[in-house]
Amino acid sequence: MSEVYASRRTRLRERCNASGSATALISRPANVRYLAGAAPRGAVLLLGRREDLLVCTGPPDDRPSEGRPDEALRVHCLRRHGGDPAVAAADLLVGEGGDSLAVEEHHLTVARHRELRSVAPALRLADLGGAVEQLRVVKDEEEISCLRIGAEIADQALGELLESILVGRTERHLALELERRLVDHGADGPAFATSVATGPNSGRRGHRPTDRRVEEGDFLSVCLGASYRGYRCEIGRTFVIGTSPADWQIELYDLVFAAQRAGREALAPGAAFRDVDRAARQILDSAGHSEGLQALTGHGVGLEIEEDPQLSPAAMGKLDACVPVTVEPGVHIPGRGGVRIDDTLVVRPEADGGPELLTITTKELLAL
């Protein structure tokens, strides 16, 4: 992997040079891990004039889930407890004659930015912007492999839950059990806070589990994800509890399923972000559910659970191959509940079989 990380840093350095800055300070943890292989708590990466440094408050943790620093990268640990690696990195750069530094202004706090200026007043600071995030959008096959394994873990955890008795258990209890099962199957942990929603809560995006108990006839919507070697995937499914679904539940489920399928089928290299959103959204709009629809149909995933691109009505840009995204339309009817169906897929050209579905738990409307 050392060559991979070195190549990523080279590409970033080329972007920096093109914008007039020879050095850069990376502070956003996901970006540090992408370029350095690991992101110990508080660590920053300095792309220096002579060499690159991972600046840490102490020796990096050796746990696989935390990643391991690139062997070709020198690790610099602060001597003073409580020091700021970003400030120390700026000081090191000045010591080797650096006069300019590109920083991630969208991540640095105002206080930290001021501290950099006070320690290195002669250093000209420029904004790196989202350069690293842009590099992260297209994944290599090693990254996709991590997402694929994470998806398999999430599928396993969800499948086991569906085989257990659900009536009478609380949303909170079910969410905790799913997160335990993720770890049991090899995940670093949950990719985000697991959402379990029942009855009138079902279908809400990002619903926080409550002490409401599962009842016969409820819709049960679940959204979970596994983090594996830092990479995060997402799956969401909706079921009916105990009895055959009511007519309104079948109708609503079929509608959301059709919207989700349209969104999945729209994924292709060169497809506009907004066109993928439109493919799913227009099905829900035409059925009278335009009010209250979520702001986006899907988003990128990777070292963070929500990355670029955003699949939304106003999003600008087009998909590339090897970009993993979610497609997750949903409808929530206040007082009754609703449906969400959520998959993680990788954009692939038609010649390679079209979009690769990573989350494979059935999308049939099951009565549990």
Can you characterise this structure?
There is one protein chain. By secondary structure, this protein is an alpha+beta fold. It has nine helices and 19 strands. The strands form six sheets. The protein has a six-stranded mixed sheet with strand order 4-3-2-1-5-6, with helices on both faces. A three-stranded antiparallel sheet has the order 7-10-11. Strands 8-9-12 form a three-stranded antiparallel sheet, with helices on one face. The longest helix is centred in the middle third of the chain and has 22 residues, at 141-162. The chain starts with a helix and ends in an 11-residue tail after the last strand.
Tag the structure with descriptive keywords:
9 helices, elongated, alpha+beta, single chain, 368 residues
What is Rg?
23 Å
In whole angstroms, the N-to-C terminal distance is: 44 Å
Order of helices and strands: HEHEEEHEHEHHHEEEEEEHHEEEEEEE
Number of strands: 19
Largest sheet: 6 strands, mixed
Given the C-alpha coordinates, what overall shape results? elongated
Low-confidence stretches: none
Structural class: alpha+beta
Spatial strand arrangement across the major sheet? 4-3-2-1-5-6
Total DSSP helices: 9
Give the % helix. Answer: 25-40%
Rounded mean pLDDT is 94
Strand content: 15-25%
Outline of the structure:
By secondary structure, the protein is α+β, with helices and mostly antiparallel strands.
Describe how the helices and strands are arranged.
Layout: H1 2-18, E1 24-26, H2 29-36, E2 44-47, E3 52-56, E4 74-77, H3 85-95, E5 100-103, H4 110-119, E6 124-127, H5 131-136, H6 141-162, H7 171-184, E7 189-190, E8 195-198, E9 219-224, E10 226-228, E11 231-232, E12 235-240, H8 247-265, H9 273-286, E13 298-300, E14 307-311, E15 324-327, E16 330-333, E17 337-340, E18 343-346, E19 356-357
